[in-house]
């Protein structure tokens, strides 16, 4: 679940796991500090020097398989500079790190949702005991992940401990997990099957609090399927409208089938400004084989739902970005079909990316197009732009406000 950055200043998500982790530890009575070296554009030497000044009793370090080389080097530097301070790894992908490597530079890994297991894990480390999800360096076998339950009681994230001025937006979440079976997706590997939600009004209150406290013009939901429960979304939208007028701006991602025109209209009225639509692929055969839909009939309905969602977003003034995954066995004819669909229905932007095999994901082994051809198609699809224009609905609202 890590995000690698090709260069300083590239897009990255603020460290939401750290913000919640600081909050739950504070609530339990611990004195906690946080350092986002990426957000502050610190190099390793500067980060280690900063931490050396504070000399805490315990380091909690977010680590991922995709960033492991850099994470390992950082942990090794921490070990050399402050060998007496234990180092514990957190993060949804941390359990896929190679045990024979991380045990050299860390004392334990918290497997699963840090927000829910962190306090018990820290308590256990202090007392020399055990805790759910705590994987110690002397055991080669990871425990079962600790998972957030449905409707978990959580404090508001401690964004004040992080350099929020460096972030162009802040993130939040209303649900964890997913009930779908897409074989390319790391979300289910990280967060598990079985969708769990937070109370809708509590999430609305956090959104409004973020907006009023930190003054950001963007708030991005990290839920993989934000609108899977339509009743929950409608309750959330009602709460947002009750709490703030005008409502704060927020963005989501989801599958096409969940985003009906009626629901999108209610979301727009509650401040939704952008939808990231996971179209992925349009080939009925590939949709079925990869587990995105159960059969070809559902594949047809999937395409129709995507077309409706894109049109509704354009009509309502919601920015719509379509996401595509390439390198999963598609032919050039499949890609031409996808391209025709995009030019017909005109989402505002396209994000086409090469399939990445994340640890824990069990993809199909299908013949793929040559890399040069794939890259050519990625560039071609990403170049498609149908810029937004103010919708009739937004124009009417603007006039009424005047």
Explain what this protein looks like in three dimensions.
The chain has 402 residues and is an alpha/beta fold. It contains 14 helices and twelve strands. It has helices at 16-27, 44-54, 68-81, 99-105, 114-127, 187-191, 200-214, 230-243, 261-269, 284-289, 296-316, 332-345, 371-382, 392-401; strands spanning 59-62, 87-90, 108-110, 134-136, 170-172, 175-176, 196-197, 219-221, 250-254, 272-280, 319-326, 349-354. The strands form four sheets. It has a four-stranded mixed β-sheet with strand order 1-2-3-4, sandwiched between helices. Strands 9-10-11-12 form a four-stranded parallel β-sheet. α7 crosses α8. The chain is globular. The termini are far apart. The model has no long low-confidence stretch (mean pLDDT 93).
Summary tags:
402 residues, alpha/beta, Rossmann fold, TIM Barrel, 2 domains, four-stranded mixed β-sheet, 14 helices
Biggest β-sheet, characterized? 4 strands, mixed
Radius of gyration from the CA trace? 22 Å
Compute the number of structural domains: 2
Write down the CATH class of the largest domain.
Answer: Alpha Beta
Multimeric status of the protein: single chain
Mean of residue pLDDT? 93
């Amino acid at each position: 679940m890590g995000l690698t950055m090709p260069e300083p200043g590239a897009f990255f998500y603020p460290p939401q796991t750290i913000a919640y982790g600081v909050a739950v530890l504070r609530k339990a009575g611990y004195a906690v500090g946080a350092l986002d070296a990426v957000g502050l554009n610190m190099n390793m030497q500067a980060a280690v020097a900063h931490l050396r000044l504070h000399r805490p009793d315990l380091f909690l370090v977010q680590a991922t398989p995709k960033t492991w080389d850099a994470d390992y080097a950082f942990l090794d530097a921490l070990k050399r500079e402050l060998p007496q301070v234990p180092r514990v790894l957190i993060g949804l992908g941390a359990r896929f790190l190679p045990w024979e490597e991380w045990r050299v530079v860390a004392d334990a890994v918290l497997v699963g949702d840090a927000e829910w297991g962190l306090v018990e894990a820290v308590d256990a480390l202090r007392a020399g005991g055990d805790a759910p999800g705590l994987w110690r360096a002397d055991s080669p076998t990871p425990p079962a992940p600790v998972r957030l339950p449905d409707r978990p009681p959580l404090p508001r994230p401690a964004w004040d401990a992080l350099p929020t001025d460096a972030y162009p937006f802040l993130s939040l979440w209303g649900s964890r997990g997913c009930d779908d079976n897409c074989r390319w997706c790391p979300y289910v590997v990280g967060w598990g099957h079985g969708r769990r939600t937070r109370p809708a009004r509590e999430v609305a209150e956090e959104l409004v609090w973020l907006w009023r406290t930190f003054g950001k013009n963007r708030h991005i939901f990290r839920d993989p399927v934000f609108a899977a429960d339509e009743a929950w979304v409608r309750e959330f939208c009602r709460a947002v409208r009750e709490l703030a007028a005008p409502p704060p701006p927020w963005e989501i991602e989801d599958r096409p089938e969940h985003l009906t025109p009626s629901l999108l209209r209610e979301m727009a009225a509650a401040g939704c400004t952008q939808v990231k639509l996971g179209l992925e692929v349009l080939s009925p055969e590939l949709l079925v084989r990869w587990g995105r839909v159960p059969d070809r009939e559902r594949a047809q309905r999937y395409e129709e739902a995507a077309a409706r969602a894109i049109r509704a977003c354009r009509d309502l003034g919601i920015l719509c970005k379509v996401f595509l995954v390439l390198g999963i066995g598609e032919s050039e004819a499949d890609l031409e079909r996808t391209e025709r669909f995009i030019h017909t229905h005109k989402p505002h932007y396209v994000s086409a990316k090469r399939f990445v095999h994340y640890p824990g994901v069990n993809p199909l082994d299908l013949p793929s197009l040559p890399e040069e051809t794939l890259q050519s198609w990625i560039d071609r699809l990403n170049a498609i732009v149908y810029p937004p224009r103010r919708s009739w609905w937004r124009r009417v609202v603007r006039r009424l406000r005047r």
